[in-house]
Specification:
522 residues; alpha/beta; Urease, subunit C, domain 1; TIM Barrel; six-stranded parallel beta sheet; 21 strands; globular; binds zinc ion
Amino acid sequence: MIADTLIENVLIADGSGTPAQYGAVLVHHGVIADVIYHKERMGASPAAERINGRELMLAPGFIDAHGHSDLSLLAAPEAIGKISQGITTEIAGNCGLSPFPITDNNREHLEKLWQGYGEKLTWHDYRSYRQALLKRNPAINLYVQCGHNTLRAAVAGYETRQLSSEQLSTMKLMLLEMMQQGAIGFSTGLLYTPGLFSDENELVELLKVTAPFLRVYTTHLRSEGNKLIEAVTESIRLCRNSGQRYLHLSHLKTAGLSNHSKINQLLKLIDDTNLSGCPVITADRYPYIESLTQLSVALPSPFDELDDISLQMLLEDPGKFNEVVSALEQMDEQRLLNIRLVSTNSPQYRKFVGLKIMEISNITIKSGAWIVADILRQDAPGTMAAFSGMNKDNMLRILQQNYVTCGTDESARPKDFSLGVSHPRGFGSIANFIKYLCAEDTCSIEEAIARITSLPARIFNLANRGKIAPDMAADLVLFQPDRLQSNATFSSPHELTSGIDTVWVNGKIRYSNQQIIESTEL
Ligand SMILES: [Zn+2]
């Protein structure tokens, strides 16, 4: 047998968590054909091409368990933000937002939401989306879940609170079809419109559809702060009442100063549930303590129930604008001033990206409340902000749990800012995740690698990824563990990670020496 490539002279950390061993990996037609640990066999191995790994570490491609590249991977398929971290696979369709199913009820809204990507939404279901994506030859593998918010809006738009029984039946049929077509799981974003209108009955009925597929239910909880424990309890109850076995908590955290003390209760609730065996709970976390989401989530009631498009239209009315400003003035001022502007399409505010509202307020001599309302008036759907309020010790404790993997919670962005500005986690999560896990020798590098390879592969049923073993896809990362370092910061968020040498996706080199390697083959 003549194989394509032999990657030799490497320390193989195979994704299982066991100590790395010196050896070579034989790649044939995009698949790992052999893993060789004996020097004699290495020399004898037939290969068209031999690559000297210079005693660097070779690991399975890293898996981003929580990404949002659904559209960005079409617009910038080279996925530099992801592949430069060694990420070869991303799970998308998160937080209830997926690029399918699309109907006349949600098309216009989604087109506005994603207008920054300059893509026409020409597809309508999982299958046609996937075809559109594969035509672009993306650098990384993308597995997409069906999102509850998109699904609900496809049937009932963005304003319907209580669904009729016909609407719920239509949603169930559509969800079934998406799962049959290959959606990797089902996600909810219960903090966002229209997901926040859903009651337990609606969600249980939908989970009854997904349960027989034995795929994962991922959730952006209804609350990550004041009602955190209630929200986790709700999601466990939903699974138990529907027969859904696998529950995955997205970007697990204790948000808000007054909720930091809930960490023990949170971890105990998860441990107790896992001991009971039903559902099986896993989670992901980005290794940062500032979150990133739409600036509009800062708004208090009743404005928090508007979708971003309606909100922007409402703010054009001067009377309503003043109402929003007064509502914002009633909020905790420190919290408001600590919000950091991360990206916006507003020409007027773009120059303030990276600054906190407090700093913008000092420069413009306007109040924080007025500035937030004004930014939202100019660009509610496209303005992203970082919210402080997470606790570092809690983050480290969450990362230490053996069921927690890494999710960037970001879309793959180009190095320039043509598709908006990323949270630094879009370029630096993996290196930080490994750094925190390996700090103080609590975890070996091999165990840290297992958490971002075989663990997420198991969570999302990716049978042929996440390990270096014969017959697995040849997704590989050659890197220098002692030089691995995130360089992305809030003021310079698109800096590439150091220490990543070469990245193969399905047997092809797609990144090497800080450069994208173009692949013309489809
Ligand atoms: Zn989310």
